[in-house]
Design brief:
The protein is mainly alpha-helical and 310 residues long. 56% of the residues lie in helices and 7% in strands. The strands form 2 sheets. Strands 1-2 form a two-stranded antiparallel sheet. Strands 3-4 form a two-stranded antiparallel ribbon.
Length: 310
Amino acid sequence: MNFTPDPVAFTIPLPFTLFGNTTLPIYWYGIIIVIGAIAGAFLASIEAKRKGIDPDHVWNALLFALLFGVLGARLYHVLSDWAQGDPLGYFSKDFLTNLVNVLNPRSGGLGIFGAAVGGIFGIWLYARFAKVKFWGLVDVGIIGLALGQAIGRWGNFFNQELYGNPTDLPWGIAIAAQHRLTQFQSLPDTARFHPTFLYESLGMFIVTGILLYIARRWDKTLKPGDMLLLWGIFYSLVRFFTEMQRPDAWKFSEIPVAQIISVATFVVCAIWFLYRHTGPQSAPRSKTPPRRITPPPSTSNPASSSEAKS
């Protein structure tokens, strides 16, 4: 693939100067993230209606999930850069500028693990505010999250990021010189790279289908919160393998941190899920109190007993 996209979709002229700019660029990354969020919420609303939940709660909770999801995603990404020595300079300026850099998605990337934690926290806040069942919203929303991930990964394509090592495979993509990692700067313009974003996107489309199938096939068997655990299991697998094509990965002792988190998430979610369905608490509890067995009445004659004693 020889196409190298422009990250900016269009610009909006401003009647005033904003941070030294007279135009406001609108990026494809943001547009695709919004499309993914809306598509995910639409799918979640369909699942909510099927399960007897008012779909309006899904759309209302989406606002909370997006707000705290973006905050969580930014914090995860910034912490990962800070752990690597702050290469983007998030903490090298005054406090206000640092705060803007940390909170502004335009100044860097987003981390999906942080987004998931922040989004779930946002749904929890909404559930308390609206007095609805938290796990019911999470279980339908998590399927929408998987679809949103599958679509949202295409924003990385327009930003020319989340690519892998050089490859000769026919689906390799071109990366402009200004977007290449340092170790790839000397490669010729004809070099092609693994589309890591595409691998994760395809994997999450498959996960979306699996979660939908499980939610409908075993609807009567699943417990509240099971879909979140299943998402943790399947996404961890997808992320573990796609991380093998992340030359820019944040590493700890030469191991990508995302792989460590993926393994931990997989183990915790898998054990928790199995325990919920095979452990002692999974056995059905009888609501009928046990019958009390009383001894049969005595058939001996008290009179004869007295005579025998006398």
